Amino acid sequence: MLFEEFQSRKVTPIQYGVLSIVETQPSLDQTSLGKEIGLDRTTTADVVKRLVERGLLRREHHPDDKRMWQLFITQEGSEVIATLRDGMARAQERLLSPLRPAEQAMLMDLMTRLVEANPHYGSPMRAF
After folding, report:
1. In 97-120, which residue ranges form alpha helices assigned H by DSSP?
2. What's the pLDDT band for 5 if we cut at 50, 70, 90?
3. Is residue 14 part of a domain?
4. Interatomic CA distance for residues 41 and 86, integer angstroms
5. Phi-psi region for residue 122, left (φ > 0), alpha (ψ -120 to 50) or beta?
6. Which of 24, 52, 62, 65 has the CA that lies 20 to 30 A from 108?
7. 26 three-state secondary structure
8. CATH number, domain at 46?
């Protein structure tokens, strides 16, 4: 459902998550980003590279360690995120639509509890 919603902007759900995290945590280093979103180093580097090439992110060397990259969202990246937030909400509504409102609330509560109880398996993507 997310792929369908994001198709018009040619952004994957993982790219959306990366952009959202960098938007809320400017200057986050690439290694910390990978841990935050639950991606290995190689995948993180590949996703970041693609987003930099598209002009949605920019990276700068860390002032204290030139081997590390700090990440920043560009104006265009912020615009893409703003556009896709509506798509994210539509996808969630579509996913939950077979459930009654009370069931939707219960499911979201249970999912939140599961994620919060298992932080050692990666941080939840706060963007979602």
Report:
1. 101-117
2. confident
3. yes
4. 30
5. left
6. 24
7. coil
8. 1.10.10.10
